[in-house]
Amino acid sequence: MPNRIQAAFRAAAEAGVGFWAACNRLRLPGTANPFVVGVHEPMRAELTLENLPVTGAIPPGLDGLYLKMGANPVRAATRGHDWFLGDGMVHGLAIEAGKALWYRNRWIGSRTAAAALKRPAAPGPRRGGNDTVNTNVVAIGGRIFAVVEAGSFPVELAWDLEAQRYNPFDGTLTGSFTGHPHRDPRTGETHAIAYDGRVWDSVRHVVVAPTGQVVRDVAIPVAHGPCIHDCAFTARFVIVLDLPVTFSFRALLAGYRFPFRWNPRHGARVGLLPRQGDGADILWCEVDPCFVFHIANAYEDADGRVILDVIAYATVFTAIGAGSTSRAASNAGRSIPRRGVSRDGCSIPRRRSSPASMSGASGNATATSTR
Predict the structure, then answer these.
(1) Fewer CB atoms < 10 Å away: N or C end of the chain?
(2) DSSP helix/strand/coil, 295
(3) Buried (b) or exposed (e) across 200-235, using 16+ Cβ within 10 A?
(4) What's the count of helices (H) and strands (E) in the chain, helices before strands?
(5) Residue 90: CB partners within 8 Å, gap ≥ 6?
(6) How far out from the chain centre does Cα 301 lie?
(7) Residue 88 is inside which H or E element, if any?
(8) How far apart are CA 369 and CA 91, in angstroms?
């Protein structure tokens, strides 16, 4: 009974906050959002183009399916819109024997997109009220999945993109997932660090087996609800980026749909979680305040230090109303190669032989997938 009472109280509170945010959203500027105009203007139709002309020659052996995923709002963007939001659209280009067989683009059949398109939503179980999936396309367990962070279950796609179904990895995923999972080419496992905008005191290390089912889901204690867009791993550790972009109740109440902002009270640290460890086993290494969207590589050097190759921004999302346009211009694109997180107390001697390098992106199928 207490759980039911708590759930009812939370639902009522969230409804109240949602109503307040919707009212304040009407006060936001109605100017065109820069991420839905010009080169960013959404596509307005689903296309099927076959036997595409090829300029030059496609290299022999380059056969498969090139996939791209992104936000492509069906309806016009409303006040409070953000670059990261909007109905998902997947694009596919099939290549075989030097020929470009077809191109297709298809909206992900969320309830919102389907209603706007006046057609049935994609089948399959939902998680919560927001079933938009718009971030990435990955190959897991020999299947193609569209994924998003901090929200909906993944969507399984047919190879020709003509069918789709919400699929929490055959019922084994119980919480949110990530937009950037990474496959270990040695074990075939896919690793993810998942956060949830409604859960502020923990994130999760999720491992999906080569067969496509979740075999590990471990909570990691954090504070303030950090936004963790990417992760990486080495031979011994999974890398957790706990950086100063966190959930902002103020931004949410103001009507902004992406409620994460720079939080100077939240320290910057990088966690080294043993790949089979619990949340209590994580080793936190403090770093200078910054934000990292993506990790290019992670590895352990000969002394046991963990090295990350990243692009770091000094600050992002600093203004309540600026959203994803508020990256620090002085640091935009500044590459920080081979940045070590092994400060005092964070150097871990190597206890067994292991590869000198293992890429966090190695084997990741964010751009391509084979049939």
Answers:
(1) N
(2) strand
(3) beebbbbbbbeebebeebbebebebbbbbbbbbbbb
(4) 3, 22
(5) 67, 68, 69, 105, 106, 108, 137, 146, 157, 161
(6) 28
(7) strand 88-96
(8) 12
Three-state DSSP at 55 gives coil
Q: Which residue in the block uniquely carries the two structure tokens 């890429």?
A: 359
What stretch of H or E contains 24? Answer: helix 2-25
Residue 174 has what pLDDT? Answer: 96
User: Could you give the CA distance from residue 369 to residue 371 in angstroms, rounded to a whole number?
Assistant: 7
pTM higher than 0.70? yes
Q: What is the rounded distance in angstroms from the CA atom of residue 281 to the CA atom of residue 273?
A: 7
Tokens of 229: 């867009």
At 312 the pLDDT is 93
Domain boundaries, the chain: 1-30, 33-168, 196-358
Annotation: binding site: 180, 229, 294
User: In the beta sheet, which residues pair with residue 328?
Assistant: none
pLDDT at 131 (0 to 100): 97
- Partners of 274 in the β-ladder: 237
Non-local CB neighbours of 136 within 8 Å, separated by 6+ positions: 69, 146, 147, 148, 179, 180, 366
Query: What's the pLDDT score for residue 249?
Result: 87
Answer for the pair 263, 251: CB distance below 8 angstroms, yes or no: no
Backbone angles phi and psi of 294, in degrees to 5: -135, 145
Q: 201: part of which helix (H) or strand (E)?
A: strand 199-208
- Which residues does the annotation place in the binding site for Fe cation? 180, 229, 294
Could you tell me the two tokens for 90?
A: 């997947």
**Rg, C-alpha atoms of the chain:** 21
**Position 184, amino acid:** D
Closest Cα to residue 323, out of 3, 36, 2?
36
pLDDT on residue 211: 97
pLDDT at 326 over 70: no
| 133 vs 39: which has the higher pLDDT | 133
Q: Taking residues 58-63, what's their average pLDDT? A: 93
